[in-house]
């Protein structure tokens, strides 16, 4: 028959096991704090990237608005120029008709 362990042995063994658990928990806590620092750093980097992208988005929206204004202005200019071209083409047709009439009159005068 074995003798039960003494109270002193049980106390020392319990202390040793608790001490080992404490070391393991402290190691785990340290690891978690390191991981937290890494995550905070990553979050800060992502926040900076996000802010840069938002600034770029605002800048691009501003450029897009300016380009849209240019498109409207150029469309108006194009419409005006198209109107001028049509007027010139109409005037050209009128002048051609006048030239034809004048040539016919000239031919009649030369025939007499």
Task: Provide keyphrases for this structure.
112 residues; 94% helix; rod-shaped; 0% strand; mainly alpha
What topology does this entry show?
Layout (H helix, E strand, L loop, with lengths): L6 H105 L1
Total strand segments: 0
- Largest β sheet strand count, sense and barrel closure: none
Order of helices and strands: H
Low-confidence segments, given as residue ranges, are none
> Count of helical segments?
1
Report what the structure shows:
By secondary structure, this protein is an all-alpha fold. The protein has one helix spanning 7-111. The mean pLDDT is 96.
In short:
By secondary structure, the chain is mainly α.
């Amino acid at each position: 028959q074995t003798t039960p362990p003494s109270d002193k042995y049980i106390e020392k063994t319990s202390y040793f096991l608790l001490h080992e658990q404490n070391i393991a928990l402290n190691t785990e806590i340290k690891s978690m704090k390191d991981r937290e620092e890494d995550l905070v750093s990553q979050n800060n980097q992502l926040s900076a990237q996000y802010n840069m992208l938002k600034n770029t988005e605002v800048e691009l929206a501003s450029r897009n608005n300016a380009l849209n204004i240019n498109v409207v202005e150029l469309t108006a200019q194009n419409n005006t120029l198209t109107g001028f071209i049509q007027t010139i083409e109409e005037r050209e047709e009128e002048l051609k008709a006048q030239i034809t009439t004048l040539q016919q009159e000239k031919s009649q005068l030369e025939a007499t």
